[in-house]
Automatic annotation (TrEMBL):
Keywords: Membrane, Transmembrane, Transmembrane helix. This is Integral membrane protein. The keyword Transmembrane helix applies. The keyword Transmembrane applies. The chain crosses the membrane at residues 26-46, 58-80, 92-112, 118-136.
Amino acid sequence: MTAHEATGSDDHHDETDDDVRLPWQLWAAIGLICAQAVALIGLGLIMALKTVTGEAQFLSAAIGEIVVVLGVATLLLYLAKRLRGRHASARGLSVFMGLLWLPIGWFLHQAGLTDWTFVAWAIAVTQTVLLVVAPTREALGVETRLPMAADIDEEPDSETPKG
């Protein structure tokens, strides 16, 4: 008996050949999410180094920023793992995390960092598109369309005459 069978968990995915059959769009989204996480981990390490060397002006603020940066990186890695395991529940938050780059890009623009503005916006658009295209939705088992009113079976009203 495996650990999966012992726990009776339906929310577990064993690595099989199904991993290879993920659509390239989903693999690209997972790679983009992991790249963001790695960048945040690097940023957190740089911030920690500056804090230790005394370059940070306010120690408590620096520690708080490091915790937030590493926390977001951890969340991104968790989402990437869930997407690789075909867990549809990770898709919505992954789209949201991608869309967060839109206001980040705006603030970069306001700060005069126009080149980085376009990088942030490209990440937002690319990640969102990769997660909402049909092959990704199908791989995650997400409904591709909403039911129309005509598709809903309704009980006929027996008191209303037809004709």
